[in-house]
Amino acid sequence: MQLPIAPEGKVRFVPSIPLALQHAFAMFGSTVLVPLLLGLDPRVALMMGGIGTLIYLISTKFKVPSYLGSSFAFIAPILALKSSLGLGAALAGAVGSGIVYVILALIIQRTGSDWIHKIIPPSFVGAVIVVIGLTLAPSAISLASGGTHFSYNAFWTAMVTLGVAVVVMVWAKGRLGMVPVLVGMIGGYAFAALRGQVNWSIVAKSPWFGLPHFVHPVWNWQAMAILAPVAFVTVAEHLGHLFVAGSITERDFFKDPGLGRSLMGDGIPTILAGLVGAAPTTTYGENLGVLALTRVYSTQVIAEAAVFAILMSFIGKLGGLLQAMPSPVIGGISILLFGVIAASGFRTLVDAKVDFADRRNLVLSSVVLAVGVGNLALPIGRFPVSSLAMATGMGLILNGAFLVYDKIKPEAKDAVEAPQEAAL
């Protein structure tokens, strides 16, 4: 096998199996963790991740080697909607966010993609990603410590889970180093089993094979409107992943097959996921890491990984094992994952070389961070809007005001961007 293998390259079936399984394992931990936190069947997430990935590959004409999995950006707002309006309404909101994706994709296919970078600049994107991680952190700590009453049993299980994942992430080499979340969950699960913290009756009652448990949305226009702004967060994440995928493969995916096709391939699976009871999907950075490690960029391998995920969704015992996973195990791995999300937001700001001497960048990031981390959840009637949605919405409005002002008074932009010391 001569490396690298291009996205359109073919790999013989037998050698492709371990490569595809590696992609399946890379996405597994994060993909099943999201539905576990939301109270959904993780097997549905596996199925829709696989189906969504196949849709994405078809939409991008099998030119972009990306895998779709459960999005962490929607956890907090879906939990907020679930507590106030019910799970069905929250799923309707997820469908609404997918519709936003599709609308954006259609607009970009007609107008090009340059304007989207102006609407969601790096100073906005990085701050929102930080907010995602920090607003989720309290739930991770709660799960890790036993909920309302501190439990040392829960705490030690969570710390073992976290410790195993950290060791693998920092020191493991090769393929093992690509799956720290999965290995951490397995290690924490084994530790919890030894301490009698696993409810094995859930596994015993689960069939060996069968359909996953689907949940259908209850249509609620308010929920759809509340969750729609979160789509701009995942669109920003999508832009970053598409750029990284292009850098790894030395292709310009923004031009061929085009950002519009890529967003369409992400939006349709998000709509379908909401219709059957799975979390909204997004392109996965974990699988981009596998591409960089193996230098096998073949979309055929990605498609095979998607098929493996779909097949796993029919294994009832696997679903039982996941649903029996003790909360401290989920909490321990969540501490790492949510922290990594927040840190990746700071990395976005650094990599984009955001200049905070520019007062617009400073103001935009500051407002998004303060509103999001400050847990400002403004109710619309009796329907609460999550702090993430509020931060996203206010950031979009604020940046929109900057753009409108520049259109009305172009010379104002130069005045605002002047060095701060000159203004003093």
Concise synopsis of the structure shown:
With 424 residues, the chain is mainly alpha-helical. It contains 20 helices and four strands. Helix 2 runs antiparallel to helix 14 (299-312) and helix 11 (230-249) runs parallel beside helix 13 (285-294).
Task: Supply database-style keywords.
two-stranded antiparallel sheet; single chain; transmembrane; transmembrane helix; mainly alpha; 72% helix
Describe what you observe in this structure.
There is one protein chain. The chain is an all-alpha fold. It has one domain. 72% of the residues lie in helices and 2% in strands. The chain is built from 20 helices and four strands. The chain has helices at 13-38, 42-59, 75-85, 87-111, 114-119, 122-145, 152-171, 180-194, 200-205, 221-227, 230-249, 254-276, 285-294, 299-312, 316-323, 327-351, 359-373, 387-408, 411-416, 420-423; strands at 68-70, 281-283, 379-380, 383-384. The chain has a two-stranded antiparallel sheet. β3 and β4 form a beta hairpin. α1 runs antiparallel to α13 (285-294).
